[in-house]
Amino acid sequence: MKHFPLGNTGLLVSAYSLGCLNFGSRTDKKTSFQLLDHFFEAGGNFLDTANNYAIWNEGCVGGESEALLGEWMKERKNRHQIILATKVGAKPVVPKSEKMEGLGRQAIEKGIDESLLRLGTDYVDLYYAHVDDNETELEETLETFDSLVKAGKVRAIGCSNYRLSRLLEAKAVSQSKGWESYCCIQQRYTYLQPRMDANFGVQVSADEDLLDYCSQHDDFTLMAYSPLLGGIYNRTEAVLPDAYRREDQMTRLHTLRKIAGELGATPNQLILAWMLHNHPRALPIVAASGLTQLEENLGALKLQISSEQLDQLKQIIN
Fold this sequence. Notes:
Blueprint: E1 3-5, E2 12-14, E3 17-19, H1 29-41, E4 46-48, H2 64-76, E5 83-88, H3 105-119, E6 124-129, H4 138-150, E7 154-160, H5 164-177, E8 182-188, H6 208-216, E9 221-225, H7 249-263, H8 267-277, E10 282-286, H9 291-299, H10 307-317
Parallel strand pairs: 3-4, 3-10, 4-5, 5-6, 6-7, 7-8, 8-9, 9-10
Antiparallel strand pairs: 1-2
Helix pairs in contact: 2-3, 4-5, 7-8, 7-10
């Protein structure tokens, strides 16, 4: 497992971040522990969760994933070897409510203390603003995050589901005030490009402007969630989600599958490898419900994509 710098924080994170969204709920404890053990043994140290995971699963109120990770780290006694990322801002104020906690001072301070308790630790390595909060001044959000860093509860901060304009505004505020700045962004990102009119709700897909920004700033890390669109790339009969239905997509899929065949890999593996070889590099958040899926994902780390193959993939995208 290769490791890369997380922004300019000095932290080194594994090429993959293991998405723990369903751990402790849809994915039971035994399977969750097996997946965590296997990922860790393969050199993975970067775990991704949130305080609202997985409130949409039956019987869940949020925090189930964090509690499972806390239990695993306690049993394995490996907290010091883990780069632990969690998030705040998207948890409903009451279960099933459409109103989210937001990124005000009170919500963030309450969120971190509750997350730390569930995780069984006194700090998180990376704390994300989960979704943008236009009702709260960026100054309030960033000053609160900065205070958590100064208090030792958080080592670094990142944002997710931010438009580039808001990211730039936030970084300008942090710089002018001398506060901790976002070191990374976590967005929807995959090989296929969504339609211009695609609507993902509160989720934001990485666009060309953000990719250009990340290309020009090597000290800022791009994290990719939903990189495999639920595994549809491997299924030849799969129907693309409406958001990704474009006239040129079949050409892209054909090229992807052709190159995957040349490499003796699955399309899913090629996408994960492409993210790590492409510029800007995107560190994928990989999810798995069983060891077979995780093994396939890990297998992508061995792929070597030639410059010619990268050019073919890039030309199709453009």
